[in-house]
Amino acid sequence: MVIEAWDPKSRRWVLYQSEAEHSADCQSHPYEMIPKRVFLDTNVVNLLVTSAEQVFEQAHISEEVDNTRAEDIEALMHVFHVGARAQWDLVASQKTIDEIVLTPNVSDRQDLLDYALDLLQPRDDDCGFAEDFGRRLMGTRFVSALPDLADQMLIGNAVGYGCDAFCTRDRRTIVKYRDKLPDLPLRILTPLEWWQCVRPWAGLFV
């Protein structure tokens, strides 16, 4: 999916081709629904690091990249471009660190650790509570629909950190089951869905 569209009249890339399209998006995604504190799943941290040039420097996305990955990269590129001037809070957890430590490639592992630790460091005071909350939430009715215990813990960590959104690329074991988690006090979003929340209001931040 192409997130921007080419406008032949202005000869530039635009987010919306008509006022009606923009108004409809504003109604579908009210300003109040923009996530203010977002927990980044390990797979999102991984993509931010391995595709840093595309996400943070708007480098070209190779046509060899599969559609879903390319869509995630482009969505994150837009979110982080807009978010550079917004007051959104990004969060990772110790569980994310533990998963990154298992990365086989030494160089990739260090880059991932540096980025994740930067997200985690300012929240040392909250870390103990959030990590413990993640462990205690595992197996409860709030997250038991998720087949992976590690995912259950990460969701619990996000709740413990007071996040209002959990951004993940895991469509197979998390997104697929999110409708069975109605009592969670946060939304589970793919990168594209995160951007869709921000997109109607992007002009306020750039």
Question: Could you give the topology of this structure?
Answer:
Blueprint: E1 5-7, E2 12-14, H1 19-28, E3 37-40, H2 42-50, H3 52-57, H4 67-83, E4 89-91, H5 94-100, H6 106-120, H7 124-137, H8 149-160, E5 165-167, E6 187-189, H9 191-198
Parallel strand pairs: 3-4, 3-5, 5-6
Antiparallel strand pairs: 1-2
Helix pairs in contact: 2-6, 4-9, 5-6, 7-8
Features:
two-stranded antiparallel ribbon, 48% helix, single chain, 4-stranded parallel sheet, 9% strand, 206 residues, alpha/beta
Summarize the structure.
By secondary structure, this protein is an alpha/beta fold. It has helices spanning 19-28, 42-50, 52-57, 67-83, 94-100, 106-120, 124-137, 149-160, 191-198, and strands spanning 5-7, 12-14, 37-40, 89-91, 165-167, 187-189. It is globular, with a radius of gyration of 17 Å.
